[in-house]
Amino acid sequence: MKNKLPRRLSLVALVVIVLATGWVLSGEPARDRIIESALINVDDGRVLLQVKLTFPFRYLSHFPQETGRELRIRIVPVRVPSSDVGAVFRNEGLVPPDADIAAVDQVLYEGDNPDGPYVTIRFTQPVRYQVIPGSDYRSINIIIQELL
Fold first, then answer.
1. Domain count across the chain
2. d(Cα 107, Cα 92) in Å, to the nearest integer?
3. Of 51, 81, 105, 113, which has the maximum CB count within 10 A?
4. pLDDT of 42 higher than 70
5. Which band of pLDDT confidence, cut at 50, 70 and 90, is reported for residue 148?
6. Which is more confidently placed, 97 or 17?
């Protein structure tokens, strides 16, 4: 019976170490940002705004369809790690470098919307655009065709 006591103590010690390690490593969500990047590129006179998020998502729809001062893109997150689920419901915004080239005022991630999350692009003036979901499930491309 004395042989079993050290084994039980070793097992209890191992369980405590595993639980303590899990508690220490769980910490805050891994992502401190939702918008990984918002970059504007100009190629042969074509202006492209690419917005990349830190988690995969599926594009659902956007409105207005072709023109406006504000573009709202409805998305649905997919495969978000459990440690990062809370971040999906946050709001975040940034101004991309060279924003004035494309008349971009701000890029927003709106996670607290009752209809689900949106990526919203606010322009400084009405523009014509085309929305193309990225093939990587993390980005959305907006071709800004012309300033109106």
1. 1
2. 8
3. 51
4. yes
5. low
6. 97
Domain assignment present for residue 60? The answer is yes
Is 3 a domain residue? no
Q: Two tokens at 62?
A: 């956007």
List residues bridging with 130 in a β-sheet. 143
The dihedrals phi and psi of 25, each to the nearest 5 degrees, come to: -75, -20
Higher pLDDT, 8 or 75: 75
Q: Which residue, 70, 63, 48, 55, is CA-closest to 127? A: 70
d(CA 84, CA 94): 20
**Domain that includes residue 138, residue range:** 35-147
Q: Tell me whether residue 89 is in a domain.
A: yes
Decide if 141 contacts 119 (C-beta within 8 A): no
Residue 60 belongs to a domain with what CATH number?
Answer: 2.60.40
Predicted model pTM: 0.76
